[in-house]
From TrEMBL:
Coiled coil: none annotated. Belongs to the ERG4/ERG24 family. GO terms for biological process: cholesterol biosynthetic process. Keywords: Cholesterol biosynthesis, Cholesterol metabolism, Endoplasmic reticulum, Lipid biosynthesis, Lipid metabolism, Membrane, Oxidoreductase, Steroid biosynthesis, Steroid metabolism, Sterol biosynthesis, Sterol metabolism, Transmembrane, Transmembrane helix. It is found in: Endomembrane system; Endoplasmic reticulum membrane; Microsome membrane. It is a multi-pass membrane protein. Catalyzes the reduction of the C14-unsaturated bond of lanosterol, as part of the metabolic pathway leading to cholesterol biosynthesis. One of its GO terms (cellular component) is endoplasmic reticulum membrane. The lineage of its organism: Eukaryota, Metazoa, Chordata, Craniata, Vertebrata. It comes from the Eukaryota. The chain crosses the membrane at residues 21-43, 63-81, 102-121, 127-152, 220-237, 257-275, 287-302, 356-382. The keyword 4Fe-4S does not apply. It comes from Oncorhynchus kisutch (Coho salmon). This is Delta(14)-sterol reductase TM7SF2.
Length: 416
């Protein structure tokens, strides 16, 4: 294949352009390490000054790279097992469609069996708590190395395989955004694999390690810890059960695979989304299950709205979506203006945010740290909504304006 240095016409740089692409890869990894340090400190204050800094010895453990690489290899092996069906992605620029194995839920189940087996063999899973910082350091290292590999390999990809956004000719920005849309090694799709496997399943394994640490320390798991583990396991199991829906999301359809997604998938998700469980190990809370109403409502809205759009995009004549009101667009695709997508323009984000709040409530109201995820996720989804809005306006023009008039609120009905 020939070396490809061609650039795409670039409308507007995202994430603060070159400055953002230079600062974010420094700032976010430090944030992960900082939050992990704060959450195990007695005060657990995110605004404490001077900040809690660990001795360098706590950042490294030779077991950590073995665990991280072993984990990636194990999940890759599950990905390659001939289980589940093959599904086609959306149509690409050259008119082709890639095939993806839908077996993430099996990977979760096999992982659960292996965890049970390791418990039975007496493996100290609670030791994950002590290993959190070195594991995060290694995951960050792997993210940088993988992003570099992807950036270099992208120069051998054909032009039609490049993402619109990460192909500006500016190395820092392109490294961050990702040049190639669907980098693969043979039929192994690196972006699709990283999106839902090592980080997401890793997150619930870390949570379980925190629960075992609590059992070690206090002889039993607290209600708060069980709720956090249960809610987050439900979220991950749902994502993997509905794995096919990821094929119509922005990450797969639009964004290149660069540091932004690699780091998000492999380091940010497993190590910051598990902060609540890690927090509870050091700061036990005795609480009633306040979050249950929220989780049910949030989960319902999140699942129903994502499934409705996914079904509509895959087969608009399916009985579950055929009667919904739609608007025609110049591209031939239609936009839903009733059902969940008639309530707000991103009902799936609304549901996700309600759930995020439910995960934090079992941690009580005395600390800000367990609410870090809700605050960060609100910022992320508001920014993501604005990006998607820009893409959709560029794609659908007048039809998008008409959709916005029909459905004036973006995420929160009558508020935003
Ligand atoms: P969405 O699934 O919301 O997809 C957006 C796309 O849907 C648009 O680009 C458009 O694409 C299509 N669309 C928009 N409006 C309509 C409409 N009215 N009718 C039909 N199609 C429409 O994108 P995301 O990838 O952002 O989100 C997927 C899920 O992942 C969400 O639930 C989100 O909360 C979750 N998520 C979770 C994260 C986490 O860290 N936990 C991070 C990011 C997302 P087109 O028209 O081209 O089909």
């Amino acid at each position: 294949m020939k070396f490809n240095k061609q650039k795409s016409p670039q409308a507007e740089k995202e994430f603060g352009g070159t400055l953002g692409a230079t600062c974010i890869p420094v700032f976010l990894p430090l944030t992960v390490l900082y939050l992990l340090c704060v959450c195990r400190s007695p005060v657990a204050s995110v605004i404490q000054w001077p900040p809690v800094l660990p001795p360098t010895a706590q950042l490294w453990d030779p077991l950590a790279p073995v665990l991280i690489l072993g984990w990636m290899a194990l999940q890759s092996f599950f990905y390659l097992l001939p289980m589940g069906k093959l599904s086609e992605g959306m149509v690409l620029k050259d008119g082709s469609r890639l095939k993806y194995p839908i077996n993430g839920f099996y990977a979760l189940c096999i992982t659960a069996v292996l965890l049970t087996l390791s418990l039975w063999l007496g493996m100290p899973l609670g030791y994950l708590f002590e290993l959190l910082l070195p594991l995060a350091v290694c995951a960050i290292g792997v993210s940088f190395l993988l992003s570099l590999y992807l950036y270099i390999c992208s120069f051998w990809a054909p032009h039609h395989a490049l993402a619109q956004g990460g192909n500006t000719g500016n190395p820092l920005y392109d490294f961050f955004m990702g040049r190639e849309l669907n980098p693969r090694i043979g039929s192994f799709d690196l972006k699709y694999f990283c999106e839902l496997r090592p980080g997401l399943i890793g997150w619930v394994v870390i949570n379980f390690g925190m629960l075992m640490k609590e059992v070690e320390l206090r002889d039993s798991a607290s209600l708060a810890m069980i709720l956090v583990n249960g809610f987050q396991l439900l979220y991950v199991a749902d994502a993997l059960w509905n794995e096919e829906a990821v094929l119509t999301t922005m990450d797969i359809v639009h964004d290149g695979f660069g540091f932004m997604l690699v780091f998000g998938d492999l380091a940010w998700v497993p190590f910051t989304y598990s902060l609540q469980a890690a927090f509870l190990v050091v700061h036990p809370q005795s609480l009633s299950p306040l979050g249950i109403c929220y989780i049910c409502a949030g989960y319902y809205i999140f699942r129903k709205s994502n499934s409705q759009k996914n079904q509509f995009r895959r087969d608009p004549t399916h009985p579950s979506v055929a009667n919904l009101e739609t608007i025609a667009t110049a591209t031939g695709k239609r936009l839903l203006v009733s059902g969940w997508w008639g309530l707000v323009r991103h009902p799936n984000y609304l549901g996700d945010l309600l759930m995020a709040l439910a995960w934090s409530l079992p941690c009580g109201f005395n600390h800000l740290l367990p609410y870090f995820y809700v605050v960060y996720f609100t910022v992320l989804l508001i920014h993501r909504e604005a990006r998607d809005e820009r893409h959709c306006r560029a794609k659908y023009g007048l039809a998008w304006d008409s959709y916005c008039r029909h459905v004036p609120y973006r995420i929160f009905p009558y508020i935003y």
